[in-house]
Amino acid sequence: MRKRVSAFNFKRHKAAVHSLMAQFIASTVLLIPPLTYMFVSTNGSSQIAIQSILAVFSLRSTVNATVLVATTPPYRRFLLRCQMSEIDFSEPRWLILYYRIIGFSSLLLNTLGFYLLVFQNSKLGNFRFYLIGLQVACTFTDIHLSLLMQPVPLYPLLAGYTVGLLSKYFGVSAHVCAMITGFVALIQLESLTLCFGKNIKLSRKF
Fold it and tell me: Membrane spanning segments where (predicted)?
């Protein structure tokens, strides 16, 4: 195989094979606890021994992930780069100011759009209620991201923290804020899908 591929691709293939072999060995070794459990449980051993066996077996996913990172050169280099990089934990003032400007401007524009849909678009019929729902979802998404949450990333780590109103005054964690973000984004996507569906349904009538 080495004669048919380049040296770079062969090196990558060799590293992948070594990683897979290491993961296979780790998984095989961690299959010993359940087999031991079957033997111990039939011999009337103590509850502590059985609990210890199950505790060791529960490490399977953690060990596999550790072996994957340790035996794959790109992942190792990424972790070393993260360790060597100087992460800035200070609060970026320009980003917070940008969030506030965008948040208030989005609130004004979304309020204008909401007013036009409610009072100036009677010709749209029932379809305007679908647009109103989408407008409300967009407004809440903008308010949450730019005012309530205000996320700050911690590059190169896949991490961050929040400095918005929810975190500052109500002690809401970044994890909860991220869950709310996913929830409101899903509502916005569903509202957009309903608008498309209603629009297609109306177009077929004509």
Answer: 20-40, 95-117, 129-149, 169-196
